[in-house]
Specification:
By secondary structure, the chain is mainly beta. It is 12% helix and 42% strand. It has 13 helices and 52 strands. The strands form 12 sheets. Strands 9, 10, 13, 14, 15, 16, 17, 18, 19 and 20 form a 10-stranded antiparallel sheet that branches. Strands 2, 3, 5, 6 and 7 form a 5-stranded antiparallel sheet that branches. A hairpin with a 2-residue loop joins strand 49 and strand 50.
Length: 860
């Protein structure tokens, strides 16, 4: 047995000894520097690469030739012209040592002329400029294919799947996982032949599968034959880029792709492949620009390129049942329910045993409160790609962001796992959200896996005060108390709680030559919003004040030393949560977002001063009420300047007012006529739009401002209110409900836009309630209140035009109660009010069995 093994070894050794080997170094011509990281190939007599590798740190390489013959060496470098040597004759068993000198011929993409034309070439190698840019992209993609074939490169990946709201693009749900020892490519692609013949996506009624091309596909003849190509120049993050564009060239009916291979103009390195899908059957409401994929490339030092980050985004279909003329239901129409985005990032890269730690960049810093000067613990620090911030995409929540941290007790934070790049750093904190303030994102550069230590400050007290109390001057002796009403046991926010600040004031007057001093109590009040937030304006600076829940005996003593003080209030469980109508009215307050007026009267001894307060009777007057929101994120725009000018007289007809923290404004007592409504806010395109003020009516406007730079046209929806609903107080209750967060309201325009099939389809969208159906009957139940009978839901009372048609107890005491859908069709409705508990109910809808809440329906 030993002899046989020895013979086998003897038979192998001569074969190894006869192997041909070509080794050497690569350097720049004329004794220039050694070239490391060059992609070197051994070409046979027909020009086919039989071996390839990257040169080592000293420019060294070594190939084993498959047999004797003539071979050439090809050297490729990103940003330099390709170089091929003359032939080297290699005899059987010869070990040849050579030095390859490469002329220095940089490729200057910035010198290329790019013309904007409609010409699309059949081959990317056509045209001098296009061929030059394509050649640089090809080099990078070929190194990626080489790394896949060698199998020496492995990754640690973080992958995710996210469900995205189709309007705001806020993440609704997310799942992540980490995988180790993954060989490239990091995602799976079909072959080029399959993609060209079957399409880049398979979409049917119940499911969709979308594919992105990998480097093999992009280099394939099938891909080149199916597309035409062009050139495009652009700038991203201050980096000039050149792109090879491609789009389908034939009339195929399969789902195809179009896009751009983007290269850095200075270094000629491949940065990104941007993709969009063509011929995709999209559900109604889908924005085609949001359906696509992106591949972001990086390079191992002195090694191959690889896909560092990637994502594919596609629509999720829902069903809409729309009534047809016969009254029957047609085929379900697919509508956009959400977007699904799947993607991932390379956290670590390994070449053999060498670790590159591509994701270990770190950003560290400390956050301080500008008002107190102290470190601010508990703040969310979120980093995202700077391109997303520039594109004004909504900020991700900390729980969904891949790179985030929370400040500790010392205000310090540390965000790890960051690839080199440019990021936008955002700060969020419950205090800032309460005041309606969101600091601007800060640009952070991570280079060589590190960045400068940061010292961050929250916005100043003056900034917070201006946002919180936009209708008060930014100077003077008044400040604001901002906070959250919380449950004392759980610490959770409590909405709908009346909060007040009390302080003493003194009035002096001369009576008979003597000074008479009168003491009284002044106050400011607010009702906590949906997240428990409140803001009390006009609180005097430097004076003792008492903060409490309205009606409580205990509270907090405080004294404002700056324009803003942060102070939470604990709710007293023994006190009822009052509706706005039940809350006491302070002596001086801001009414419906309009500015108050105060006058100072000089008192002189021995004189009697008469003051006449005059109220206007019914005249040819109307008023303008509205809300200003961001056209992209739909969030309220605080402290926007709103004014109107009379079109005929071309003079200012109203003083300028500012929107409150919920974006509301009121312009009252306007003469009937045509006006130009002007809305301005820093960071948004100014908006001017015509509105009509009608006699004894309130005109309501919904203003959407487009962020600057403008990508969306400004939107203004003007609504003349229904007279029937105006007289019934619907709009007044809606205004206060929007201010306090008590109640959900649907106007005729809301109903028309939503197009519900049944009344309960509309009501189901209201927070705090649910719709339950059994045996053909549908009822509306409160999520916040139980009826105490076996855990069954607490059903809301239902009113139609002020008449109680469904009583909360009917489901318990009557065998076959009516359904809300039996009384009215959606097309007959002019307005709907939904109150999910007794605390939110106006007095006119309170009464027997009303603790569960009510649905109030008004016909047109």
């Amino acid at each position: 047995m030993t002899f046989c093994c020895f013979l086998a070894a003897v038979l192998v050794l001569p074969s190894e000894a006869l192997a041909q080997r070509i080794s050497g170094t690569v350097r720049e011509a004329d004794g220039g520097r050694l070239i490391s990281g060059g992609f070197v190939s051994l070409l046979d007599q027909s020009g086919v690469a039989v071996e390839a590798d990257f040169t080592a740190a000293a420019g060294a390489f070594s190939f084993r030739a498959p047999g004797p013959g003539e071979y050439r060496i090809r050297v490729e470098r990103i940003g330099y012209a390709e170089w091929v040597t003359g032939p080297y004759a290699v005899a059987a068993g010869q070990a040849l040592a050579i030095t390859v000198e490469v002329p220095r011929q940089p490729v200057r993409l910035g010198d290329l002329r790019v013309e904007v034309t409609g010409v699309c070439l059949d081959d990317p190698r056509q045209g001098e400029a296009l061929a030059t840019v394509w050649d640089e992209a090809r080099k990078a993609l070929e190194t990626a294919v080489w790394a896949e074939d060698r199998g020496e490169l492995t990754f640690t990946l973080t992958e995710y799947e996210r469900t995205i709201d189709p309007r705001s693009l806020v993440t609704l749900g997310s799942e992540t996982r980490t995988r180790h020892d993954v060989r490239p490519p990091p995602f799976r692609s079909l072959s080029a032949r399959q993609l060209v013949t079957q399409g880049y996506a398979v979409v049917d009624r119940d499911s969709s599968v979308f594919y992105a091309p990998d480097a093999n596909v992009l280099l394939s003849e099938e891909f080149r034959d199916a597309h035409c190509f062009g050139l495009r120049r652009d700038e991203v993050e201050g980096e000039a880029r050149l792109g090879v564009t491609f789009r389908p060239s034939g009339g195929s009916n399969v789902i195809g792709i179009e896009g751009t291979l983007w290269l850095d103009e200075a270094s000629a390195a491949l940065r990104e492949v941007e993709l969009r899908y063509r011929n995709v059957p999209l559900p109604r409401g889908t924005d085609r620009r949001r359906v696509g994929a992106n591949l972001f490339f990086d390079r191992v030092p002195d090694g191959p390129f690889y896909v560092r980050d990637w994502w594919i985004r596609f629509p999720v279909r829902g069903r809409s049942l729309r009534p047809v003329l016969t009254g029957l239901t047609g085929d379900p129409e697919p509508v956009l329910a959400a977007y699904r985005q799947t993607g991932g990032s390379v956290v670590e890269a390994f070449a053999g045993r060498r670790w590159f730690g591509t994701g270990e960049g770190v950003v560290v810093g400390v956050l301080r409160d500008s008002i107190s000067g102290e470190p601010l613990p508990g703040a969310d620090i979120v980093l995202r790609d700077w391109n997303d911030a520039v594109a004004l995409n909504p900020r991700p929540e900390a729980a969904e962001a891949p790179f985030s941290a929370v400040t500790d007790d010392a205000g310090a934070f540390r965000v790890t796992g960051l690839p080199d790049g440019v990021y936008a750093l955002g700060v969020d904190h419950p205090r800032l959200r309460t005041a309606g303030v969101r600091p601007d994102e800060r640009r952070v550069v991570v280079e060589d896996r590190s960045s400068e230590a940061l010292e961050l400050w929250t916005p100043s007290a003056e900034t917070v005060f201006t946002r919180t109390c936009p209708n008060l001057p930014s100077y003077g002796s008044r400040g604001a108390v901002v906070g959250v009403v919380r449950d004392p046991d759980t610490g959770l926010p409590v909405p709908g709680v009346a909060v007040e600040a009390l302080w003493r004031t003194w009035t002096m007057r001369m009576v008979g030559g003597m000074v008479d001093v009168t003491e009284r109590t002044d106050s400011a009040s607010d009702v906590s919003g949906e997240e428990g937030e409140f803001a009390l304006c006009r609180v005097p600076l430097g004076e003792p004040a008492f903060l409490r829940q309205a009606g409580a005996d205990v509270g907090v003593e405080l004294e404002l030393l700056t324009r803003v003080a942060w102070q939470d209030v604990q709710v007293d469980p023994t006190l009822p949560v009052e509706s706005p109508e039940e809350t006491s009215t302070p002596a001086v307050q801001e009414v419906a977002g309009a500015p108050t007026e105060e006058d100072v009267i000089t008192l002189e001894p021995g004189l009697v001063h008469e003051i006449e307060l005059r109220s206007l009777g019914e005249t040819e007057m109307g008023r303008l009420l509205g809300r200003v929101r961001d056209a992209r994120s739909h969030r309220p725009v605080t402290a926007a300047a709103v004014s109107v000018a009379n079109r005929r007289e071309e003079v200012q007809s109203s003083g300028e007012v500012r929107t409150d923290r919920r974006g509301h404004f009121v312009l009252g007592e306007l003469p009937v006529g045509e006006y130009e409504l002007s809305v301005r806010h820093l960071g948004y395109e100014p908006l001017t739009h015509g509105v009509t003020v009608t006699r004894s009516r309130t005109t309501e406007v919904d203003v959407r401002l487009s962020p600057d730079p403008v990508e969306l046209a400004p939107l203004v929806a003007t609504v003349t209110r229904l007279r029937r609903l105006e007289t019934q107080g619907f709009y007044e209750r809606k205004h206060w409900g929007d201010l306090t967060g008590l109640g959900t309201f649907f106007t005729a325009q809301d109903i028309e836009r939503r197009n519900p099939f049944r009344v309960t389809d509309l009501i189901a969208d209201a927070p705090g309630v649910r719709v339950g159906c059994q045996g053909g009957r549908c009822g509306v139940f409160s999520r916040r209140v139980s009826n105490g009978f076996g855990g069954a839901g607490c059903e809301l009372n239902v009113y139609v035009d002020g008449v109680l048609v469904i009583r909360s107890g009917d489901g318990r005491w009557r065998g076959n109660p009516a359904s809300v859908n039996d009384f009215i069709l959606p097309i007959e409705i002019g307005g709907v009010e939904v109150y999910s508990g007794a605390a939110a109910l106006p007095a006119e809808f309170s009464g027997f069995d009303s603790r569960c809440g009510a649905v109030v329906i008004w016909t047109k």
